């Protein structure tokens, strides 16, 4: 097997499709957020009004950043409690054809946190742990709401930039309602229908028992999968209906579903950058951000493809097929891997554990950047805001003025918040990994030894703190230690980024706006894009280089020397 | 300017300052003061820890790595000392400046009036509202207001300007500064400042750095640097667990690779010590650069804000044009010879001591060789300018067979009224010329003799040489210039075009200035202005950077946040440049500091991890990361630590002088600084560490 024209074409088609769909979905979302007229309103406008009336929300009422933050946290906390409750009493709730028992407390906490924070780390196998009720009413609902939570966070930031000397940064309830109703629901319905058409299962019947070739009975789990899969791909959730996730033929039956599911991973995150440009009134600014994301994405993809397609004498067969999605081939496995880790999605169609060390490192680095390469829906862009502000601050000083971004001065408060947003998740990764590799509770879960084992633990905590949710596998994380430490990592990774963004939004909204001049530090030039890439790479690399050296890097050198783990 | 700071730099390294700075470097090790600089404080803590470890080994635990550990520890201390030295030398330069100023005050005795009697008291014992007397030859003991008398004062001690200035009781010129000298007459002064807060004391405490508070940008930068320090603290603190895991997997003990001195080295190399060590030196020398330009900022905040200013309000007179209008042409009425006009104009101006009047006399002399006649001797009477008639002139009695002459000159409007009132005509062509001159931005004066209109003297505003280029530079820097003038719109527009300002306010009243500043600020601009009069005070206070001229009124001086001792209005531009330089230096060294870390990882990480997964071979796979091919793990670590320390001292001159500033757009500045300090910051330490490593190995230090 060789990397050939078809592989190039597939990657090219993927990127091209993304580029074409971005402005379409982006401009639609801009209309939704700004409250303009759009075609979905004629179908669902009444529903929106009804929701406001039932929930006693005054859509014209604005919130300051503290109220907005409180509403967001309260909303997520309520989701957490509800999800926890469902899991603990699923045996007495309907739609439990397999009579699955209550979920253990630590796993329930882990799962609830995981789905509320848009991580969708799964320490369990869906089909043997969660009832259909929990999957549909609990997990799928949170798939929508956690995605909506992520998306709405960029709106106060945008308002902070375009508004002047005000405390108002929008109404959380209105933002969440519109996002869910007009964006996430319709897109999911469309995708789910296509998936069902291609053969993804969607049913509420019992699992099937069939006679296998050997004559023994085999249970074939089925369930309402398509509806959950659509949103888990679109909403950068990633938690599969089945344990095998995107590699399961009932989740991902055909090359077309594979392509669409991959595209869905990046679709909204990419579109939001366009939306951002539209709402702040400068497409050039958005184009620079989007280009930065794309350049990083293509670079990471190239490294991973190179590593997977290169001959490694340590392996008998080259390229290595272990853990790959054989139906779709190496390129599609790698493409999914890079997309899912850069976009905080976490769904997989191949086993990252089996990838070559450099390829595994790409997945790690994607997450260690704070998931800003497109990133989770909303999360990628708001994570990027932190990096943009840091870049503006460091480089802005060099032009001899108090740094400013889009007319807003970047001062001590913004720097403090941006730094928290960048540093806190990294701190969580390093500290929990350090605990993991020296405690019995951490090491006893390992299936592999040496640097690969190290990577497995590093990956688990990176995935949690980056709210990615993909697993390197090879590590049994359904233990009290991992369930709880990861829950902590997920909470830190999510809210230590969101709250500072909202705080910055409030602070920006209060500021005056400085009109641009030739003395203004330009943030819409290729030079700025270049700088932004530099800051993202340098900050992530400086933080994680020692850890990466002892994981994938040393493993890579060892593999070259013929030793594998 | 660059020359000046070059000279200053040479003097900065004179022996006294260096010796004093060396002593101060050790005094500054006091953790109580060092804690204000989080980055260097961490280095000190780490150095203490290493010292403890070395002391333990010396007592007898692990003598094998003693020499190496000791050397590391010494260099860690040197890192702190170098940073302290950078700050001390910046302060030393400021102090030297301050000493010179202070000397002027040290020996001063004041003649204090107590119950009408003069008492000699030391200047330092004066308090607010004391009344003192100063006569010719006395040094004014403290800042005050003249309450009685008039005197000429030599203010060269603070302004460098040798020409004496007049100070008198009243509203406008009553402010006197301590340390200046009375040259003639006698004045009575009311002291307005408490001792310790006089003008000079303010200067002294500011340049010495004693009262220096962190500026907003400095605070933001310190937050960023602290955060980076925390990140690296975590990266280093979590490394031993990672190493122990990996050691177990490779079947070796890693204790010797994660010893405290080695971890300390890694931490100190990674945290931004370069910028952390130089940050306060940059701030102090920024203030110092202002003082070298004879501008005193009342706070570091003002110096920094100067870099942000993007609208400058400039008074036309004195800043954009030479102080006064000059006669530039004679335009006779039809049928009048130009000589006759020139002669009449000259006669009417002889007694006119204003610069305009003199310029008419001079122009007539230069153009037509006319000598000012001694008209006083023939009993001529001069009619001074009055606000009612708006004209001036001369009455010359009949003489040498000529009839009596009555000459008047004044503005076009006034003269027209005058001529028509006595029943004479005002020629059409003169009227035309009047309009034409006004369009050009000049001022016409009409000359009339015995009721007959002779013609016009054109008075022109002379735009200062080079000012247009200056404004073009400012525009490139993104700074808008607004000219303020009392002239009418037509005149103002013409001068604005000639000088190349972006905008102007004509027929400006003091309130207009204030309104304009508020308006610019409301739309997000930062406004800088320079002013002198009492009625400038509100505007100076409102402006983000208000520079009061030292020749100005006390009210103006207190309202502004900077004082220009030279009273030179174009200073504003230099102040802005200094502010920008200050910010740029910080940004450049921060970038350099962070970029440096790349190489340090490549020096230290392979040294620490090279033995892992060796499985019996002499080197493990990670020694491949040793791309600099450093001699040994020990020499690699030591070289990185040494480089990290000496780069601070190597960059002290840059911190003191500031990075080079060019008046070009932000993009160009950024591109250049990125290349030099970003890319340079990545590459330079690779070379530096390699060279030090060669030296360390050649000297067999490890």
Write a structural description.
The complex is a heterodimer of chains A (565) and B (702). Chain A has 565 residues and is an all-alpha fold. Chain A contains 19 helices and four strands. The model of chain A has no long low-confidence stretch (mean pLDDT 90). With 702 residues, chain B is α+β, with helices and mostly antiparallel strands. In chain B, helix 8 (216-237) runs antiparallel to helix 10 (260-270) and helix 10 packs antiparallel against helix 23. Chains A and B meet through helix 14, helix 15, helix 17 and helix 19 of A and helix 8, helix 9, helix 12, helix 23 and helix 26 of B.
List keywords for this structure.
heterodimer, A: 565 residues, mainly alpha, two-stranded antiparallel sheet, two-stranded antiparallel ribbon, 19 helices, 64% helix, B: 702 residues, alpha+beta, 8-stranded antiparallel β-sheet, 7-stranded mixed β-sheet, 26 helices, 21 strands, 53% helix, disordered N terminus
């Amino acid at each position: 097997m060789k990397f050939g024209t078809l592989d190039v074409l597939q990657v090219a088609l993927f990127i091209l499709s993304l580029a074409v769909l971005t402005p379409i979905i982006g401009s639609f979302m801009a209309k939704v957020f700004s409250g303009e007229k759009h075609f979905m309103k004629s179908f669902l406008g009444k529903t929106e009004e009804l929701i406001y009336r039932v929930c006693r929300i005054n859509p014209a009422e604005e919130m300051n950043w503290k109220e907005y933050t409180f509403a967001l946290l309260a909303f997520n906390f309520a989701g957490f409690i509800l999800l926890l409750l469902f899991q603990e009493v699923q045996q007495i709730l309907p739609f439990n054809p397999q009579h699955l028992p209550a979920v253990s407390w630590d796993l329930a906490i882990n799962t609830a946190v995981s789905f509320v924070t848009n991580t969708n780390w799964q320490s369990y196998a869906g089909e043997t742990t969660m009832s259909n009720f929990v999957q549909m009413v609990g997990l799928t609902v949170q798939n929508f709401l956690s995605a909506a939570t992520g998306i709405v966070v960029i709106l106060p930031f945008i308002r902070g930039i375009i508004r002047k000397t005000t405390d108002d940064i929008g109404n959380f309830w209105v933002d969440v309602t519109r996002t869910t109703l007009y964006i996430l629901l319709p897109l999911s319905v469309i995708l789910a229908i296509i998936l069902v058409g291609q053969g993804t299962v969607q049913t509420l019947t019992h699992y099937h028992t069939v006679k296998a070739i050997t004559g023994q009975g085999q249970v074939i789990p089925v369930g309402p999968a398509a509806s959950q899969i659509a949103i888990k791909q679109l909403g950068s959730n990633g938690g599969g209906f089945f344990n095998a996730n995107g590699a399961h033929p009932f989740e991902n039956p055909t090359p077309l579903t594979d392509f669409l599911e991959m595209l869905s991973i990046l679709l909204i995150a990419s579109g939001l950058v366009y939306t951002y440009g539209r709402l702040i009134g400068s497409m050039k600014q958005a184009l620079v951000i989007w280009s930065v994301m794309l350049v990083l994405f293509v670079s990471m993809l190239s490294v991973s493809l190179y590593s997977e397609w290169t001959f490694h004498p340590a392996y008998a067969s080259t390229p290595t097929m272990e853990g790959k999605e054989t139906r779709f081939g190496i390129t599609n496995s790698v493409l999914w891997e890079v997309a899912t880790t850069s976009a905080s999605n976490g769904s997989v169609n191949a086993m990252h554990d089996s990838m070559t060390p450099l390829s595994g490192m790409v997945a790690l680095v994607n997450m260690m950047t704070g998931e800003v390469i497109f990133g989770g829906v909303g999360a990628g862009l708001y994570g990027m805001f932190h990096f943009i502000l840091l870049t503006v601050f460091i480089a802005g000083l060099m032009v001899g003025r108090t740094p400013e971004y889009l007319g807003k001065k970047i001062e001590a408060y913004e720097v403090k918040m941006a730094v928290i947003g960048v540093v806190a998740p990294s701190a969580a990764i390093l500290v929990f990994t350090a605990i993991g590799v020296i405690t019995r509770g951490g090491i006893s879960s390992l299936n592999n030894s040496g640097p690969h084992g190290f990577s497995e633990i590093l990956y688990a905590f990176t995935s949690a703190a980056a709210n990615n949710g993909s697993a390197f596998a090879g590590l049994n994380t359904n233990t009290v230690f991992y369930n709880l430490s990861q829950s902590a990592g997920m909470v830190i990774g999510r809210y230590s980024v969101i709250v500072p963004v909202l705080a910055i939004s409030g602070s920006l909204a209060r500021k005056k706006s400085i009109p641009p001049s030739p003395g203004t530090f330009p943030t819409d030039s290729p030079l700025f894009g270049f700088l932004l890439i530099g800051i993202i790479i340098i900050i992530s690399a400086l933080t994680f280089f020692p850890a990466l050296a002892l994981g994938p890097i040393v493993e890579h050198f060892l593999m070259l020397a013929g030793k594998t783990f | 300017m660059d020359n000046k700071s070059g000279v200053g730099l040479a003097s900065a390294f004179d022996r006294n300052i260096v010796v004093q700075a060396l002593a101060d470097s050790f005094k500054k090790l006091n953790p109580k003061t060092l804690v204000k600089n989080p980055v260097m404080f961490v280095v000190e803590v780490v150095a203490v820890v290493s010292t403890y470890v070395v002391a333990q080994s010396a007592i007898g635990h692990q003598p094998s790595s003693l020499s190496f550990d000791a050397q590391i520890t010494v260099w860690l201390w040197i890192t702190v000392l170098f940073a302290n030295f950078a700050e001390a030398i910046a302060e030393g330069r400021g102090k030297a400046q301050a000493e010179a100023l202070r000397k002027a005050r040290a020996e001063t005795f004041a003649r204090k009036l107590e119950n009408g009697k003069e008492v000699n008291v030391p200047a330092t014992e004066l308090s607010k509202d004391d009344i003192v007397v100063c006569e010719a030859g006395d040094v004014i003991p403290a800042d005050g207001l003249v309450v009685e008398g008039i005197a000429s004062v030599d203010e060269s001690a603070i302004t460098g300007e040798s020409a004496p200035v007049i100070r008198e009781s009243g509203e406008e010129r009553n402010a006197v500064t301590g340390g200046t000298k009375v040259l003639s007459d006698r004045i009575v002064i009311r002291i307005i400042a408490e001792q310790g807060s006089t003008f000079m004391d303010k200067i002294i405490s500011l340049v010495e750095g004693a009262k220096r508070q962190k500026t907003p940008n400095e605070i933001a930068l310190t937050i960023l640097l602290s955060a980076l320090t925390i990140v690296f603290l975590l990266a280093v603190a979590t490394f031993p667990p990672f190493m122990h895991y990996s050691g177990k997997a490779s079947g070796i003990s890693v204790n010797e690779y994660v010893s405290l001195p080695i971890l300390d080295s890694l931490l100190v190399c990674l945290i931004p010590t370069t910028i952390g060590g130089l940050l306060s030196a940059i701030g102090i020398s920024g203030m110092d650069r202002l003082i070298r330009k004879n501008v005193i900022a009342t706070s570091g905040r003002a110096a920094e804000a100067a870099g942000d200013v993007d609208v400058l309000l400039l008074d036309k007179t004195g800043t954009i044009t030479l102080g006064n209008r000059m006669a530039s042409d004679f335009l006779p009425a039809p049928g009048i010879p130009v000589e006759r006009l020139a002669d009449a104009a000259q006669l009417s101006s002889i007694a006119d001591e204003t610069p305009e009047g003199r310029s008419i006399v001079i122009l007539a002399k230069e153009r037509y060789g006319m000598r000012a006649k001694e008209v006083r001797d023939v009993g001529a009477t001069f009619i001074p300018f009055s606000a009612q008639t708006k004209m001036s002139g001369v009455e010359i009695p009949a003489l040498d067979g000529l009839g009596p002459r009555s000459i008047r000159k004044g503005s076009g409007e006034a003269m027209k009224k005058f001529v028509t009132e006595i029943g004479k005509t005002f020629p059409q062509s003169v009227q035309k010329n009047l309009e034409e001159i006004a369009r050009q931005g000049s001022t016409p004066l009409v000359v009339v003799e015995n009721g007959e209109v002779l013609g016009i003297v054109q008075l022109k505003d002379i735009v200062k040489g080079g000012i247009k280029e200056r404004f073009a530079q400012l525009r490139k820097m993104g700074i808008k210039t607004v000219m303020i003038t009392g002239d009418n719109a037509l005149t103002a527009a013409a001068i604005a075009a000639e000088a190349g300002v972006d905008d102007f306010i004509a027929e400006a009243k003091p309130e207009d200035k204030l309104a304009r500043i508020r308006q610019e600020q409301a739309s997000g601009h930062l406004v800088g202005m320079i002013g002198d009069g009492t009625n400038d005070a509100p505007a100076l206070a409102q402006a983000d950077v208000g520079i009061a001229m030292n020749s100005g009124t006390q009210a103006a001086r207190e309202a502004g946040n900077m004082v220009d001792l030279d009273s030179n209005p174009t200073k504003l531009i230099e102040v802005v440049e200094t502010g920008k330089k200050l910010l740029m230096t910080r940004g450049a060294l921060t970038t350099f500091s962070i970029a440096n870390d790349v190489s340090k990882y490549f020096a230290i990480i392979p040294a620490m991890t090279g033995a892992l997964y060796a499985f019996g071979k002499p080197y493990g796979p990670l020694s491949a990361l040793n791309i600099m091919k450093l001699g040994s793990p020990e020499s690699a670590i030591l070289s990185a630590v040494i480089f990290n320390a000496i780069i601070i001292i190597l960059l002290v001159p840059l911190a003191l002088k500031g990075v080079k500033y060019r008046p070009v757009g932000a993009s160009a500045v950024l591109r250049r600084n990125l290349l030099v300090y970003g890319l340079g910051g990545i590459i330079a330490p690779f070379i530096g560490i390699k060279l030090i490593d060669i030296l360390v190995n050649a000297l067999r230090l490890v």
